[in-house]
Amino acid sequence: MSPALDQLPPEILRMTLAHLDIDCRYSIELEPPDAHFRYSRQMGERPSWYSLRLQPLLSLCLVSKRLCSAIQPILYSEFMLGYGDSWRSELYTWDGRLLSFLKTVARRRDLAGFVKRIHILPHLLQASLKALEKERDRQRLLEERKIRAGTANRKGLLPPDVDIDNLPYQSDLPVHFDPPLPELRQSILEDEARDTLREIAVALRIKKPTRLSAKDLVTLLIAALPKLELCSLFFGPDSDSFSFDAATLSAAGISQLPLRTINLSVLRTAEKYFDLDYNARALLDVSPCLETLNLHKCYCSLRKRYGTRKRPALLFLPRLKHVRITSSRLNEQGLENILNSCNSLCSFTYEAGGRFCNGEPEDYWDCSDHFQLRNAAKYLSRHRKTLESVHIDLRRRGGDPATPSAFSFREFTALKHLFLNLDEFHSRFFMHRWTDDSQILVQILPSGINSLHLAGRIGQERSRLEKALLGLGEAAVNKEFQNLKEVRWDRKTKLHAEDSVRSLLADAGIDFAYDSWPSTRSSFYQGDSIPFPNFENPLWSLPDSDDFSNSDL
After folding, report:
1. Where would I find the H helices in 158-244?
2. CB burial class (10 A; 0-12, 13-18, 19+) of residue 145?
3. Three-state SS string across 288-307, please?
């Protein structure tokens, strides 16, 4: 190593090496909520792009001990295998990665203190190839013994002078097929996890390590990282292996975690949502420092069972600022409890997901399992002094609102951006006490609004929408809504009075245009650096390479 480099202070050396890091931008920018979903780069026949970007740091570790000690804090700042779309690399192997990392942070507590971000996919909880082969051999041997035992019993019941090959009506006899082998457990096997569980129990000073099992590995990983800030968990078909266990944390003496961002999603299971109560409620209960919560393909009620009764169990997330819930279905209690868990929410994004029946999407259904828009506005009013962005897209919620009811965001004094879809509620939207259609938008928008986006199909109410937009323009010309700079309407239904609307809004300094918010791409609103994702498509989270054509990206 160069003498000049060898004489650099450790702090300067780390700052220099940090420019090789895959996510050095993370420290200065708010990570988009879809960053761990993106899939536009990885080719299956190529090595993982995420691993390739780490390779220079790994190589430098071999140069000298001093470089190795300087690089380790960077390398161990995150455990993000399969990040973005890199999981699609067919050359990548998951074998033993989670267990190896757990053993490392158990033995080297100094390295555990560097880890700030983790990204856990179901692949990491699959048993190793060696363990699966051992299990396969064991089950095959058991099956062979059963077949031999059954054959012996059947032969014992036949008279000794009967020729099996010449039995009459042989064509009527059932054709014999070898019974299929039972499905192997894809999660890490108990024998394979035993040594790791023992080491991590010693590191965390757990008094009764014999109660630990392989299903506790993710919980133990989170518990073993004292400075963890971001946690992304993907739930697979077997969600039991990802359930977060509060008892395991308690055994490790941990009552709260330093997490600032939590991302939860489903791994490519279009007909399945994860249950926030069952899978991650315990994680939220011990995360009082949480600032950003991203949920994708979630079903949530946030209710606990007491005996045979269910009662609401309130969350307490005092620092929560940003909530983004996409392609999900929340009932009234679930939404209310999330929004009541904090006092100063800054941004709220919700995009409803469809319902599935026997794995197939339902064309129509009631909305008894979903909250109503009027109630969402009521729950959000708790944050009317701090909420800067509201994005509510219920186009795939299904059903009809139960009761016509007026709502308003007029008292939301901090609100800068509002996105609503009119096709879900427009017939109720116009049922206000005002008879003048031109006052509809004027009466529901706060005076400080910067941008208004309206999506969906308005049907026969198009003329009333035009009057509402003209009324908004007139109010803006008269010095109301002085901060309003942008109005967008869905390009699927063009306005008859487009020229009049555009001209009047332009006189007030407001840009009017058409836009679209499709379900197969991510759409971001850049005002005030607040992103607004669109993850409507049920396959969006982690699609196969053939799920979408290039035109859909």
Report:
1. 190-204, 217-223
2. exposed
3. CCCCEEEEECEEECCEEEEC
Q: Is-contact 409 442, C-beta < 8 A?
A: no
Tell me which residue of 500, 513, 497 sits closest to 463, measured CA to CA. 497
> pLDDT grade, residue 298 (50/70/90)?
confident
Cα angle: 384, vertex 386, 389; to 5 degrees: 85
Distance from the first to the final alpha carbon of the chain: 46
Q: pTM of the full predicted structure?
A: 0.80
Percent of the chain with pLDDT over 90: 34
Nearest to 76 by CA among 112, 107, 24, 120: 112
DSSP 457: -
Q: Where are the alpha helices (DSSP H) in 158-240?
A: 190-204, 217-223
Predicted pLDDT of residue 512: 96
CB-based contacts of 192, cutoff 8 Å, min separation 6: 99, 127, 128, 131, 214
Distance CA 507, CA 472 (A): 12
Domain layout of the chain by residue ranges: 3-92
* Residues 357, 273: Cα–Cα separation, whole Å: 12
**What are 481-514's pLDDT values in tens digits?**
999 999 999 998 899 999 999 999 999 999 999 9
Distance CA 541, CA 548 (A): 12
Rounded Cα distance between 215 and 132, Å, is 17
Q: What is the pLDDT of residue 542?
A: 32
Q: What is the CA radius of gyration of the chain?
A: 29
Please tell me the distance from the alpha carbon of residue 339 to that of residue 343, in angstroms, as a whole number.
Answer: 8
- Per-residue pLDDT for 234 more than 90? no
